Structure formats: C-alpha cells, structure tokens
Amino acid sequence: MKYLINFFLVVFLLLPMSVSEGVGVSVRPTAQLPQVVVRENFIQQATNCIKNAMEEAGETRRYTVEPMIVPAGLRLPEGKITYAGSIPNGIRFAKGTQINLDVLVNGRKYTTVKCSMRIRIYDNMVVAVKQLRQDQVLTVADVRLEEREDKGANFVYYTDVNDVIGKVPIKGIGQGQVINNHIIQYPICLRRGDRVSINANINGIVVSTEGIAMENGRKERYISVKNLNSGRVIKAKVIDDKNVEVAA
To answer: What is the mean pLDDT of residues 175-185?
Structure first.
C-alpha cells in the first residue's frame, strides 16, 4: 500500500504544470456535450470583466492583464452560450485576482468557471534623479516623473513633483527609487524655545495666545507647546514656523 501511495504521489508531481493553465491541453466535444469553450475564451471573458470593473471604478491608469490559472476548456450542451463575470474578492494589483465566470446556456446557468488573473497597473511616479542624502532639502533638480508599476504597497507615492519639493528624506534615497510618504517629511521649521502663536478655531472664530515650543517641530506634526498665559503644556499641530493649532 505504501508503495502505491508513493507511486501515485510521484506521478502527480511529475504532471506538467501547464495542465493547470490549460497550455497544451485540448478539450474535445462529446455526443452529449457537443459544444466546447476553449481556454482563450475564458481569458477574454475574464479580461472583459476586469475592464468593466476598472471603468466603473473610474480607473484611468494604464494596466495589463495576464492569465495565471485558467481552465483548459469546457464541454457544454447545445444552446446559446453567454457569460456573467464577477470579482468576489475585488481587484488585487500585482497579485492573483479571482474572476468567477458564470457560464449560461440559453440563459440558464450551467456552471461557474474560476480564473486567476494578474493585473499590473502603472502610473507616473516621482523618483529620485540621483542619490539623495538624509535631510537634504529636495529641489526640482533632484526628482522627475517616471512610469512605474503600482504594486499596491502600504504607502502613498507622489504623481506631482511639487508635492515633494521642499521636503527632506528621512534616510538616504537611492537613484531611481520611487519617493513615497514613508521616506520623506517636512524639514524642521520650529526649534525648542521658539515663540509661537497658539491658535484654536472656535465656531469659526480664531482665538490665539502666546506660547513656547518645548521641542523641535515639523509642519503637520504635533509637538509639546507651553501656554505662556496658563503655564500649561499642551500638544499642538505645527502649521508653520510661527503658528501651531490646537483642537477647540
């Protein structure tokens, strides 16, 4: 028994991987199921489903679609063949996106075919023209736009060079590297001991008082600020080199 199990395991492992993708495999009709849908048809239907989903989402970036796992074909009875596609888990860029194709014969569902497609999407991203040093203030000469693949990483890339000009790298950035919000930040604009105006917006009325920065600060970051009138130390958002803001 153990010999038979090992034999069948070896046979299974030696099967060509192309079988799962339908490459080199033909599905022939039978007397009961005289119609055959080939793999290329499934690929086209899945691609159309993705195209419709992209258009509905308002996606305008360039993208490509390639099959990963698609059935070799399908036998069907006589009748008019139509399809209804869906994407149950949503589109996953650079990874496998599952497309469910309901195959209908004369308007009635016959079966559901599952296809796995890889979608690559591209955008013009801001990249470093050269090696950039930590805390180097970025200028127009340091960056440019290049088309790159959006791999769905957990950060925000930039599509306008003006969004990075004046900011500084948190660490060194390599030549050609895509610049994202995790590796650049605003430069320090407030130093510990600087006098600031502490502002609060109360029902549309801005109330201000004097304060002192208790630590260095960057635009849009929160720092500790001492209210000179009350003596209290509070957290405030840095607006610029002279102003901070607190919630009302």
So the answer is: 96
Structure tokens at 178: 């895509």
Is residue 203 pLDDT above 80, yes or no?
yes
Residue 161 lies in a domain: yes
Q: Would residue 6 count as lying in a domain?
A: no
pLDDT band at residue 22, thresholds of 50, 70 and 90? very low
CA atoms within a 13 Å half-sphere pointing along the CA-CB vector of 126: 22
Tell whether 27 and 115 lie within a shared domain: yes
Residues contacting residue 210 through CB under 8 Å, at least 6 positions apart: 195, 196, 197, 198, 227, 228, 229
Tokens of 8: 């069948």
Tell whether 56 and 149 lie within a shared domain: no
**What is the C-alpha separation between 74 and 35, in angstroms, rounded?**
8
| Other CB atoms within 10 A of residue 110 CB | 16
Number of folded domains that form the chain: 3
What is the DSSP annotation of 12-69? HHHS-THHHHTTT------SSS-EEEEHHHHHHHHHHHHHHHHHHTT--S-EEEEEEE
The pTM of the full predicted model, rounded to 2 decimals, is 0.73
C-alpha–C-alpha distance, residues 167 and 212, integer Å? 24
User: Which CATH number does the domain housing residue 167 bear?
Assistant: 3.90.1210.10
